[in-house]
Amino acid sequence: MTAETADTGLTAMFDHPFMQHAFIAGTGIALAAGLVGYFLVLRAQVFTADALSHVAFTGALAALATGVDARIGLFAATITVGFALGALGSRGHADDVVIGSVFAWILGLGVLFLTLYTTHRSSGNGTAGVTVLFGSIFGLDASHAWEAAVLAALLCLAVIVIGRPLLFASLDQAVAAARGVPVRLLGVGFLGLVGATAAEATQAVGALLLLGLLAAPAGTAQRLTTRPYPGMWISTSVAVAVTWAGLTISYLAPRIPPSFAILWSDPASVDSEPEVRCP
């Protein structure tokens, strides 16, 4: 591809409604994922996002199998499980054997619901599972794109409202509890927000890859700074940047799925717990 061809392609990119919708939804989803993901990594709860990716797949397919909009099952399942994990607290941490068994069971249910959907409700259309697994951001219409953007804005607002006490509880839970911060309630509410964000991110990158969008930008931020507020800005900025880059790459090279392009653009993955100091 020559430079002139690339310039023409980029110029014409926003002439297509599907690209406009993808950027509207993708920007909102990235902002929410970057902000929520920062606290997720800070609180060493990245495993929760991994668990919710399995739940997202099963919830969406369960809704389709019962004749309900996939987004209803997606949000209902992830938010409910998020609240449940928050309510369990430290009791929700199980050994690897239990975790693996539960994940396999949840995925097995997802496959069962996919089979029921494809054999009884979709006349043999087997693309639903692929869409849930890898996202369908280029398939969003205007109403769904703006719904995603508005919901993402509400999620960001909710995190900002609880951000200061949540940061305090994340950095020193015992002291925060002694100072009267409702640590347990904050934990439950935050994981509910994580569940909603996971459902949102599934529309962009799919259930299989949402962990990368939630965790990698935050991991990058916490490698670049130990201060929380600049870290939040970096995390959201990286998430938005890789989303824009991924959408652009996928437009210029149509054979590359947008979900892969977004995650491929991500500069880092999380491999260690961060060390963050109070501002």
From TrEMBL:
GO cellular component: ATP-binding cassette (ABC) transporter complex
Entry coiled-coil feature ranges: none
GO BP: any one term: response to zinc ion
Membrane topology note: Multi-pass membrane protein
Main location: membrane
Hydrolase found in the keyword field: no
Localization annotation: Cell membrane; Membrane
Keyword list, A-Z: Membrane, Transmembrane, Transmembrane helix, Transport
PANTHER family reported for this sequence: ABC-TRANSPORTER METAL-BINDING PROTEIN, METAL TRANSPORT SYSTEM MEMBRANE PROTEIN TM_0125-RELATED
Family: Belongs to the ABC-3 integral membrane protein family.
The name this protein goes by in its record: ABC-type transporter, integral membrane subunit
Organism, as annotated: Candidatus Protofrankia datiscae
Upper lineage: Bacteria, Bacillati, Actinomycetota, Actinomycetes, Frankiales
